[in-house]
Structures are given as C-alpha cells and as structure tokens.
C-alpha cells in the first residue's frame, strides 16, 4: 500500500471518562466489532493475567484501577484503529494528559445516570484547550438515567461543548426500545441478548414501517418523532469541519455492555474522525506525509517481566516511516540509536514489526535513554512541543532507608522520574530531595517499585507544601527577583532540568508572593506558558 494511503487509513484516538462510566467495556466492544477479539471479557482478563506475573501490576489488580496506559490496535473496514487507553483514576491524571498529546481525537464516555462527572470535566478541558476533535458517547441506556435533552444541556454547560446528537434514544432503562441513528437515518431495536458477542439487530429505515410499530408501539414512535423535531430545531446540523476544528461535538447514545449503539458510533467514527494530524515542533510544523521519520515519546512503561529491567518507551510516529534496525537521531542526547525489535500493538498483543506509519505507536526497548517528551528523527534537530509537567500537589521528603543501597535508590528515583511517575525537586538550602506528585497513590507506587525493581528502600517525611510552581524573570538581575530569591530561599528548589521552583506553603502565601514580586513570573506547568 502507498505511504499516503497508509496515513489516510489510520485513526488514533483515546477514550476518556470518569471511572466506571464504561470506558473499558466500550473499548472491549470496539475490539469485538473490529474482530480483534472473539468474546468480550478478553481485555479485562488479560489485565488480571498480567497482574499475576508482575509486581507492579499487582498494585493495579489489588486496587482495581488502571495504573498503566496501553495501546490497542485493530483493523475495521480498511481503517487501522489505534486506541490509546487512559487510566481513569484521578491520581494518574497526568498519564492521561500526556497520552492526550499523542491522540488525534477522543471519545468521551458519560454514564446516563451520573451525567458529567468531575474527572470528565478536567480531561475534556485539556482536549478543548488543544482543540482535539471530540465525540461523546452516552452509555448505560439500559438503566434508568437522566432525560436525553437534560443530559445534552449538561454536557454543553459543564463541559463547555457545542453538541449535535447523531443518534437519539427511544425510551430508557426498563422502557429502552432502541436508537434512532441520525447519521445513517435508521432505527435499531434494542434486544437484550448475549452481551459477550455481536448479535444481528434489525434496522428499520422508515418510521412508517408496520413492523416497527409492532415492535415498539405507536406511542414510542410519536414520542420519537417529537424528539427528532426538537433535535432538528435546537441543535446545529453536523458539520465535519466544525467537528475537526473542535467547535462541534457529535453525541451518540447506547449501551456498551449490551453492544448497543456501539457499531453506529464506530461506523460514524471511521468516517468523520481525523487521520494523523500535523504536529508543532519548536522550529516548524511537521506534516505526516513528510518522508523523513519523526516521533516523540509520550509514555514509558516499566517492564512487566521482573527478569528484564529494561523499559518500553511508547513513541507516537508523526511523520515518515519508522523502520526496524535503522539509526535514528535522539535529539536531546544528540546521538544515533538503532532498534532491533520495535514493538507494534495489535489488539492486546504486541509483536516485532519492520515498519510503522504516522499515527502508529511503536514500543521501543529502552535501557535508560528516554524521557517523556523526547524526540526521535531521521536527523533533523527538532523538538516536539506540548508534553508539560503539571504543578504537583502532594509533596514528601524522600529518604534512603537502606544506606547500603544508596546507588540503587538514586538510579531508581532517576528512572522513575524519567517515566513521569512523579517529579523530583532538590531544595536549594540543604540539597534535600522532595518528591512531588499529582495524586497521593504515586508515593506507594514509587516505594513499591523502588523495592521490587531496584532493591532499594525509601521512607517519606511529610512536608507542608501547597503547590509547586516554576519561576523566572525576564531580567535575572532584576532587584525584585534577587530580593524574592533571598527572602524565599527556604522555599526554593530546582527540578530535574535545573529550573527554579517555588514551593508555596499555602494558597495565601502563593498569592501574596505573586502580588509582592510582580516582576517575577509564576508558572503552573513546566512549559512555562
Ligand atoms: P471504566 O473502564 O470506565 O471504569 O468502566 P467499566 O467499563 O469497567 O464499567 C464499569 C461498570 O459499568 C461495569 O460494571 C460494567 O459492566 C458496567 N457497564 C458498562 N457499560 C454498561 C452498560 O451499557 N449498561 C450497564 N447496565 N452497565 C454497564 P461492574 O459491575 O463494575 O463490573 P463487571 O463486574 O461488570 O466487570
């Protein structure tokens, strides 16, 4: 197949939701439609299998949350679909934010009964800021939930989106009769059948079909006609450009558990969702169809096998063809690296591949060369933008609990920070090390992994910090900046890149400091924007 065709057939996206809205179930059902798995349940049971063989995953299994993100790829109607899985748990939100830098679009799953929840709001805000095309899937229609129009209002209000339904439910919960597909203009009747397999459902093309009336009754049809008129009157018609520009969000309804409404979503998705998009680097915009390869690391995964200490760096290919055994330029380290066994992902398996295309994710075995955000190219010195560290909110001093293992501890901390598990700050005053995280759970993950992967033991000590923010001043010799550094010496640290960080002990003191030193700039992401 031609290079350009390969690019055009790829759809790389993420599914985001508040935990329990049905992200895993929907992912599984998409794989089922893609023929990548034969029975639902495979993805979850695979997670448990991994848990049994890996210490790290044991944490995930015990807690029943997804600590790691992964890639699931399959083919559907000549399209190559790459789903980047995102952890829903809020303590791992930073992982999800980073994964969002590697997707070309997203599907947001919302529980019909719970409506828009906190985690969804945060994640959608990031997507909105980045103008990522969004499709909304309202799930669990087989349960009693909120009225469809109320939900659409809530999505617009709480998520700041402009929606247009592309499917509409007939009834809900006990009275759930089916779905009108506005995209294909037909009706499918809901039958609760085998939840694990795809069942053939009858589609009716006309609302006047007698069989349809027999199936759902006259009252439901009248109700549907009214609803559709309202939809037509209230919401804008779907416009693909507006969707791709991030200005309009189509909404689908369904029940992932019952395989209902999922195919409608998928069939529309492959038509409207974007193929791999151009991406900004520091010097220029890179187009996917450029012949030179380039890509960036958005995720580093600890090896699941305790006998192999290497890691897997997930690289999103932005341009060109990534080829096995070809030397590529590691821009930050200014050196060439060759990869003899790059992994591609297919359903829940990974396999060595010779070539990968823009939109694809390759997993590269890494012995410590990569950090989150690193760029790989055919030779050009460019750096992809947009993988910031977020201002952490939980802080603890980290101490070595086994003096014989100091070297292992520092190596472990260094590598875990490169993976993006947390951030390390060194206090200017006394050189003590502080770990900052977005969620409290990471402290346990760090302690556990240091012990199991590096044989090192650490202990924590509480530290009263409200928030860390990066600071700078246009003129480093500005008297205000010098005064700030003198007065706040106790609260200053450097991050791993040597950037100056202010550890504010309360929201009040942060605000006061900002007011007192207007010449000093305070930033809440490491990108300093
Ligand atoms: P998540 O990844 O977003 O956290 O959610 P997940 O898919 O694990 O789904 C959360 C729960 O919601 C699961 O139930 C799942 O079966 C259920 N669910 C998903 N889609 C639907 C749907 O369309 N209708 C109904 N009624 N339920 C749905 P669970 O009891 O927590 O887990 P399980 O024992 O079923 O695996």
Helix-strand layout with pairing:
Blueprint: H1 3-8, E1 10-17, H2 23-33, H3 42-53, H4 55-63, E2 71-76, E3 79-84, H5 93-99, E4 105-111, H6 118-129, E5 134-139, H7 148-159, E6 163-165, E7 167-170, E8 178-181, E9 186-189, E10 203-204, H8 210-216, H9 218-234, H10 240-244, E11 249-253, H11 262-272, E12 279-280, E13 285-286, E14 294-302, E15 311-319, E16 322-323, E17 328-330, E18 335-337, E19 343-346, E20 349-352, E21 355-356, E22 361-366, E23 375-377, E24 394-400, H12 406-418, E25 423-427, E26 433-437, H13 441-454, E27 458-462, E28 467-472, H14 479-487, E29 492-494, E30 500-504, H15 507-516, E31 521-523
Parallel strand pairs: 1-3, 1-4, 4-5, 5-11, 6-11
Antiparallel strand pairs: 2-3, 7-8, 8-9, 9-10, 12-13, 14-15, 14-23, 15-22, 16-21, 17-18, 17-23, 19-20, 24-26, 24-27, 25-26, 25-29, 28-30, 28-31, 29-30
Bound molecules: guanosine-5',3'-tetraphosphate.
Structural summary, described in words:
The chain is of the alpha+beta class. It folds into 3 domains: 2-272, Rossmann fold, CATH 3.40.50.300; 279-377, Translation factors (Elongation Factor Tu (Ef-tu), domain 3); 394-523, Alpha-Beta Plaits. Helix content is 29%, strand content 27%. It contains 15 helices and 31 strands. The strands form 7 sheets. It has an 8-stranded antiparallel beta sheet with strand order 27-24-26-25-29-30-28-31. It has a 7-stranded mixed beta sheet with strand order 2-3-1-4-5-11-6, with helices on both faces. Strand 29 (492-494) and strand 30 (500-504) form a beta hairpin. Helix 3 crosses helix 4. The longest helix is centred in the middle third of the chain and has 17 residues, at 218-234. The two termini are 42 Å apart. The model is unreliable at 45-56 and 60-69 (pLDDT under 50). It binds guanosine-5',3'-tetraphosphate (G4P).
């Amino acid at each position: 197949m031609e290079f350009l065709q390969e690019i055009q057939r790829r759809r790389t996206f993420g599914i985001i939701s508040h935990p329990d809205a049905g992200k895993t179930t929907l992912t599984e059902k998409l794989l089922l439609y893609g023929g990548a798995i034969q029975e639902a349940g495979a993805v979850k049971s695979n997670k448990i299998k991994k848990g049994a063989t890996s210490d790290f995953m044991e944490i995930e299994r015990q807690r029943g949350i997804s600590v790691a993100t992964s890639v699931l790829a399959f083919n559907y109607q000549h399209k190559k679909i790459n789903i980047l899985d995102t952890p829903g748990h809020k303590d791992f939100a930073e992982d999800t934010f980073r994964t969002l830098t590697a997707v070309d679009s997203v599907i947001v799953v919302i529980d019909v009964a719970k409506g828009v929840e906190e985690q969804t709001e945060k994640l959608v805000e990031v997507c909105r800021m980045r103008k990522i095309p969004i499709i909304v899937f309202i799930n669990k229609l087989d349960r009693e939930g909120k009225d469809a129009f109320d939900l659409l209002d809530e999505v617009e209000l709480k998520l700041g989106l402009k929606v247009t339904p592309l499917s509409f439910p007939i009834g809900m919960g006990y009275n759930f009769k089916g779905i009108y597909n506005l995209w294909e203009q037909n009706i499918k009747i809901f039958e609760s059948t085998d939840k694990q397999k795809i069942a053939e459902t009858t589609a009716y093309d006309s609302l006047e079909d007698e069989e349809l009336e027999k199936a759902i009754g006259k009252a439901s049809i009248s109700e549907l006609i009214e609803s559709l008129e309202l939809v037509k009157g209230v919401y804008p018609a779907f416009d693909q450009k507006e969707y791709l520009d991030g200005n309009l969000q189509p909404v689908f309804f369904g029940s992932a558990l019952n395989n209902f409404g999922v195919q409608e979503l998928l069939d529309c998705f492959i038509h409207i969702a974007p193929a791999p998009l151009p991406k900004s680097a520091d010097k220029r915009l890179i187009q996917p169809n450029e012949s030179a390869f380039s890509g960036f690391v958005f995720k580093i995964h600890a090896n699941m096998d305790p006998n192999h200490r290497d890691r897997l760096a997930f690289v999103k290919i932005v341009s060109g063809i990534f080829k096995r055994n070809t030397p590529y330029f590691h821009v930050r380290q200014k050196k060439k690296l060759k990869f003899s066994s790059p992994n591609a992902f297919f359903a829940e398996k990974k396999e060595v591949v010779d070539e990968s295309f823009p939109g694809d994710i390759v997993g590269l075995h890494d012995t410590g060369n990569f950090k989150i955000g690193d760029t790989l190219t055919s030779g050009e010195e460019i750096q992809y933008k947009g993988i910031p560290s977020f201002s952490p909110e939980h802080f603890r001093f980290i101490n070595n609990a086994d003096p014989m293992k100091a070297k292992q501890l520092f190596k472990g901390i260094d590598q875990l920070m490169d993976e993006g598990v947390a951030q390390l700050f060194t206090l200017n005053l006394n050189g003590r090390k502080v770990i900052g995280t977005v969620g409290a759970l990471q402290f346990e993950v760090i302690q556990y992994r240091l012990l199991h992967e590096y044989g090192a033991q650490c202990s924590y000590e509480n530290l009263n910090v409200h928030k860390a923010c990066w600071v700078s001043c246009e003129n480093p010799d500005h008297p205000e900046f010098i005064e700030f550094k003198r007065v706040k010496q106790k609260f200053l640290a450097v991050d791993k890149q040597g950037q100056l960080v202010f550890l504010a002990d309360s929201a009040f003191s942060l605000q006061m400091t900002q007011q007192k030193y207007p010449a000093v700039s305070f930033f809440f992401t490491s990108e300093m924007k």
